[in-house]
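User: Structure please.
Assistant: Input sequence and predicted structure:
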Amino acid sequence: MRKILFRILIGLFLAAAVLASWFAFDLYSPHKVDIRDFDADEVARLDTAMWRSYYSRERLKLFRELTELLEKQYKLRFWRRQLLAFYAAKAAFVFKDGKTREDYEKALPDLEKFYNEIRDISTTDFDAKRAAKLELEWWIVHRQRKQYKDGDLARALAETAAEIYKMRVDVFFEHGNLRAKAMEIRDNEAEAGGVTEEDWQRIDELLHQSWRSLHNAVNKN
């Protein structure tokens, strides 16, 4: 009996050691990727899926989709993408439950952690703190859209991309405009009584065009 217990304990110890090593390797070993290299259509598909999960408050589903997106878009290793998905999902729902700018800004610490991790693996250096602020700003412009002018949301989206990829803002105007149009459809239809499957199809098409535009912009020679 003691031998069996001893073997079980040894097995558990070895499993824990392997898991700890895997965790440490994923999080701390050097790992760089070119964030310009991604499948735009896969990212767009997941973007649409995450919108649907976010607005229906399906937190676990959103988390799973986020981890898949982080693998597809940034080629993050398993544990690192779990960590970043946690930061992003937490920030999203802190923001969703907010009512004022002060409430919304409570999402900023997790957004900063998220972008710090992206910057650390990216071959393109950028200001993670500024990227987080710009990300939060377009969230706010979108939430308070009636207080802003036409085009403000599209520009805010373009400015976020411009910081992450360290390029001129104007090259992302098409990306921002298309994504803003998709948001407008979702918002208008939700206010009118509900977003139909046909509406989601239109949204998905715009998001595919938007991410293709961004991919083309960052990969022009």
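DSSP finds ten helices and no strands in the chain.
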